[in-house]
Amino acid sequence: MQQCPGCCKKGKKRKKSQDNLPLPEYRCRDCHGGMVYCQTCVVTRHLENPLHRVYIALADLNLRRQRGHSPLSCCTAPERAIKGFVVLHTNGIHEVNVNFCGCEGARAAGTYDIQLLRAGWFPATHERPQTAATFAVLNYFQQETCQAKTTMYDFYGVLEKLTGNTGVKPPDRYREWLRLCREYEHILLLAFGDRALVFDPSGVNGTGPG
């Protein structure tokens, strides 16, 4: 009977019997090697890669991604995001369990949108976000639309197909995707014009000429 390679390594280190180890049932499509792991090991291996595609969603395996902290540090008072938090990435559309920081370090961690931005996720809204896109997918779309003239509609369709090309559609976040792309492009234009870094309460409009 096949055994979980992750549990076998732990068993050897602890010099314990490997007879009662859990069965390996989950394979990640994005990890190199194609190894099959048990639920506990596959969740542990993906604490820093919550957007990898496992043959069952990582959210269904009770993986929760903590924002406002480093991947392996614990928040003493995590605040759960609304159920059904969706992240768009280069390999598809993902439902992710997200915790925001609510402990004594919350002030330094920032508001919900700041915590997402620091983790590389661009939120679709600044108040109680439920959708985000990674900087990777936004940058990838920018290159696609500049080089191949790919539209936002066609690119979103590709993300749907990458999520699961079985006819079952992922959560609909097309309107949010349009907003994300337009806002991100606007920010890039400000950056290219040297008007993105503004240390003034009036924002970009308060930037002086030159």
UniProtKB/TrEMBL annotation:
One Pfam entry name: CxC2
Tree of life domain: Eukaryota
Occurrences of domain CxC2-like cysteine cluster KDZ transposase-associated (ranges): 58-167
InterPro entries hit by this protein: CxC2_KDZ-assoc (IPR041457)
Name of the featured protein: CxC2-like cysteine cluster KDZ transposase-associated domain-containing protein
Species whose genome carries this gene: Mycena metata
